[in-house]
Amino acid sequence: MKAAISIPSVRVVAAEDVKRILYVDDMRELREVARLALSRVGHKVECVSDGALALDLVKANPGVYDVVITDHHMETMNGLELVMKLREIHYPGLIAVVSSELNDDVEHEYRNMGVEKILYKPVELSALRSLVLDC
């Protein structure tokens, strides 16, 4: 039996603040929680399970996503590789990383590639929503 996900009441964002988000994480449950948390306040959210799928979507739909939020640890293409590829194709939107842990060298690499936000799991849903609103 599946456990119900309970998300407290939140205010919907104004139409001009709605973002198109690509959320990338290999854990299905975390993708679903992020999708629910962000879409519940009005954002448009698409989720994929690895960096290669995310890159394919961004390349196939240039300019569609305002924000890419990615996990670091994924099998096919990790977050660092995804960010490098997004920078190579000049992705113009905000890139954020959500991870359970990053060593200082990896965090420094993300920062050098212009990653604007890094959040550490477990992520408060309010922090995830704030990350999107701040861009």
Main beta sheet strand tally, sense and closure: 5 strands, parallel
Share in β-strands: 15-25%
Q: What Rg do the Cα atoms give?
A: 14 Å
The total number of structural domains is 1
Number of H/I helices: 5
Query: Would you identify the CATH architecture?
Result: 3-Layer(aba) Sandwich
CATH-defined fold name: Rossmann fold
Distance between the termini: 38 Å
How helix-rich are the residues, as a percent range? 25-40%
Mean pLDDT: 91
- The gross shape turns out to be globular
What's the CATH class label? Alpha Beta
CATH superfamily: Response regulator
- H/E element order: EHEHEHEHEH
What is the tally of beta strands? 5
Short description:
With 135 residues, the chain is α/β, with parallel strands linked by helices. It has five helices and five strands. A five-stranded parallel beta sheet has the order 2-1-3-4-5, with helices on both faces.
Structural account:
The protein is α/β, with parallel strands linked by helices. It is built from five helices and five strands; from the N terminus they run E-H-E-H-E-H-E-H-E-H. Strand 3, helix 3 and strand 4 form a beta-alpha-beta unit. The longest helix has 12 residues. The N and C termini lie far apart (38 Å).
